[in-house]
């Protein structure tokens, strides 16, 4: 596991990357460079498979500042899945569901406060996470202010930039706030509302059920750490990403020990978001989605000799 600390101007062009600390600094005791006058800062953490280790900082960092993902196709490694009983076979290619979660914080004073107010008007920091069918977090990226669109957080995340997960032929399920992509990161989103045809409606229904595991993962973690997530975190906002990342690690450890909780139901806004800013180098996944939709609608093979009477 590794974390990295970053500083970024909120008015930077989309292509500019946040400032990164050197690998030697690690996280423990490291301090981000002081901002220039008028510069707005944020601190973020990235973690691939938070359950693999509790070690932070030190000499174990890669030159990129975070642990490279393990190859899911390597011997002894299995591809995480999101399929449940009754899921169409075409969704067996999905190996995770992604979404963003707003973590309540006590915002900084001054003009920077408005950068952290989300569309629900409370200050927050965004946790982007991918999880499997058990609600175990596979990939986490936390630290962007709550006013930032989910698609922008995605495009600046190592998950998107490195394109090392999921393995070829697989995809991640996402909601309508993300773009439907084939490259660099395979994301399959539902058809937009007012879809025409029974096939698209059936696809959206199966997609929604399969993707709901990420909401269940967030819900379990919030239930497990109520004192942290059901109110604004009583820590400095620059330390919030470290607290949240630690919670994702402990959540995975609890699941590995068989400590599974029923998530508390939270009212969710059923508001459809646009896909945010477009990446000119990205390849649309609309054709792949149409193929999956056709497979969902296709008649299943009937076992020979089966009698429906």
UniProtKB/TrEMBL annotation:
Residues 263-280 have a biased composition (Acidic residues). Its cofactor is a divalent metal cation. The keyword Ribonucleoprotein does not apply. Keywords: Hydrolase, Metal-binding, Nuclease, Nucleus. The keyword Nuclease applies. Residues 1-78, 263-282 are annotated as: Disordered. It is found in: Nucleus. Its main location: nucleus. Residues 98-252 form the DDE Tnp4 domain. Belongs to the HARBI1 family. This is Nuclease HARBI1. It comes from Cyprinus carpio.
């Amino acid at each position: 596991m590794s974390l990295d600390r970053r500083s970024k101007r909120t008015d930077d062009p989309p292509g500019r990357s946040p400032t990164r600390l050197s690998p030697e600094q690690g996280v423990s005791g490291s301090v981000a460079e002081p901002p220039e006058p008028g510069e707005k800062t944020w601190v973020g953490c990235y973690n691939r498979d938070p359950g693999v280790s509790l070690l932070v900082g030190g000499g174990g960092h890669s030159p990129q500042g975070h642990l490279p993902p393990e190859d899911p196709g390597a011997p002894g490694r299995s591809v995480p899945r999101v399929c449940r009983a009754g899921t169409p076979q075409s969704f067996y290619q999905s190996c995770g569901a992604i979404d963003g979660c707003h973590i309540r914080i006590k915002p900084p004073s001054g003009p920077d406060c408005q950068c952290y107010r989300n569309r629900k008007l409370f200050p927050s920091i965004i946790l982007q996470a991918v999880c499997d069918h058990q609600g175990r977090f596979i990939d986490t990226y936390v630290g962007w202010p709550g006013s930032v669109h989910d698609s922008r957080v995605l495009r600046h995340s190592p998950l998107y930039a490195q394109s090392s997960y999921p393995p070829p032929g697989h995809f991640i399920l996402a909601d309508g706030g993300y773009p439907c992509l084939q490259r660099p990161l395979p994301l399959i989103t539902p058809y937009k509302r007012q879809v025409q045809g029974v096939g698209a409606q059936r696809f959206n229904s199966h997609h929604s059920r399969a993707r709901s595991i990420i909401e269940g993962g967030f819900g379990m973690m919030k239930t497990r750490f109520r004192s942290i997530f059901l109110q604004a975190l009583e820590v400095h906002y620059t330390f919030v990403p470290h607290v949240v990342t630690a919670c994702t690690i402990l959540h995975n450890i609890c699941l590995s020990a068989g400590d599974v909780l029923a998530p508390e139901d939270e009212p969710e806004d059923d508001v459809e978001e646009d896909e945010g800013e477009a990446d000119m180098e990205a390849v649309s996944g609309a054709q792949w989605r149409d193929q999956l939709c056709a497979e969902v609608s296709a008649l299943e093979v009937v076992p020979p000799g089966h009698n429906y009477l």
